[in-house]
Amino acid sequence: MTRAAVLAGVGSFLPPRRVTNDDLAASMDTSDTWIRTRTGIRQRFFASEGMATSDLAVEAGAQALKSAGETSADAVVVATMTPDRPCPGTAPTVATRLGLGGVMAFDINAVCTGFVYGLATAQGLISAGTADRVLLIGAETHSSVLNPDDRSTSVIFGDGAGAVLLRAGGGDELGALGPTVLGSDGEGADLITVRAGGSRQRLSGTAPDPADHYFAMQGKAVFWHAVTRMAESCRAVLERAGRRLDEVDRLVSHQANLRIINHLADELGVPRDRALVNIDRVGNTGAASIPIALAEADAEGVLRAGEHVLLTAFGGGLTWGSTVLTWPGLQRT
Amino acid sequence: MSTTTTYDQLVDILVTRFEVSREDISPDVTFEALEMDSLFLVELLLVIQSEMGVTISEDSASPSDTVGQAAKLIDAATAAAGS
Question: Which segments constitute the Carrier domain (chain B) (predicted)?
Fold first, then answer.
């Protein structure tokens, strides 16, 4: 019998520095009203000086292990576009600091879709028998790459980490991951990017523009692709799972922008109140956004055992992906 | 489809989906004047695509366009798709 990956624990961590819209408006040409009406965001959290992505990942990972009642895992996967450094990956450091030195550990970069790509990866590791318990962590320190002169991106992104522990189990158990639909389109590679720092720029023979070290995004085109791709992949994954849209109790999309979340719900015909929303409190936390939303909703009792959950994300690459699961009853930590 | 019908449909979408007051809308009013920025325009084109079955690329309308111009754009796209 094929082994399924079963969600057994969740965790999240937000760095202590809370930054309100008014705080941002003090140093750039923006306002609380402008940010709220265009993004739905009221505040976000930024890492303090001296913190890095692994610091956030360790906290969220420890919480997910505790939530699952586990003290160890056989694999640590970190989904991030803001690793501690270009080389080596962040996951081995995270694994060792969690006391899991020696286990397989690697990073995934599918930008904001990283967590959903990570779920598919964990599912593969478990179903192939390579691992029995996979700790998957989405973690970002976007504040390290935000351009202070670009108000369109600086107001959207926040730092944070979210994690899940997946264990081997049966496909009919609560928490078993269903099919996953993933996709990408390199034609849109320039729509969401940090241009400098990689081989393309380093071997170009010219020094980078200082702005190329920062994150850049073409908002209009991204909005269009995000809604279209997430809607398509949601429909595709539900069809593969043999479920209907009206059976979706909770739509958990990447927290990109409240307007994208609402538009996606409308496009799918899912009532907006079934969409989990925490972007108002944490901003867009990239690969961490879905597991943070899951951990918070579970802790608040918003997600209940037996609910049909549809997860979907879109990010740079371009990349997108969706999966389904039935929410398990988790131990409260 | 006549321009009047398309315009009326567009007005209905603006009122029901974008919470714009009906009395603020006229054929000559710009999206900018309705406080709709370029992202709202993209959202509007996505709604038009799903509700009216017309695909218009996200860079073909701007906030300085009027509601009347957008209705004509939808008609032109409908005609092009049908030809």
Answer: 1-78
